Amino acid sequence: GHRFVQWSGDVPPSSTSSTLVVTMDSAKSIVAEFEEIPVDTYTLDTQVFPTDGSGGTATKSPDQASYTAGSTVVLTASPMPGYEFQGWTGLMNSASAVVTVTMPAQNSIMLASFVEAEYSVTTQVNGSGSVSVTPLKTSYRYGDQVTVEATANSGWSFLSWGGDVGGNENPKTIEIRGDTNIIATFSNDSGEQMNYLPLAYR
After folding, report:
1. Which residue, 81, 116, 174, 190, is most buried by CB atoms nearer than 10 A?
2. How would DSSP label each residue in 23-63?
């Protein structure tokens, strides 16, 4: 919007009243001067935890240095591999990774928090034998290395790995990238029907 500043031209000095009375005793040129009303803007600072950014990123759309009160901004939290989004705090609290905030008439902060994800390792046996996991824990973190080893029962031989692990190397070291299911298949020289026995480490 705009606002009146003053009159100029053939008028008395300091004519700042919006109402002006003019005596028409000659030809006159009078100008009404206006100026744009400045609009107050406010900042929206997006922060993340962990503060080093290892857990994830927080972005805003539109991405501007400041916003007018009442404008809406879409915030998106994106976790890094091995992390999970925990929630937004600050101007508003939300467990949703994507939120829309309405700017108040004040500078504001939104904090996106991330936590390390925990993954399970489960094992299954196809045939007759067992599988060991080292180290054996209730949960694992992204990038953890574990060694799985298949041990065949008498009269059986280890054949191959399946599920989220391939090949036939035994023992085998794998890197955890998410919930991991490991299947060990054993063969029987006598041709006995193989059974299927699930085991779980959680």
Report:
1. 174
2. --SS---EEEEEEEPPPPEE-EEEEEESTTSSSEEEEEES-
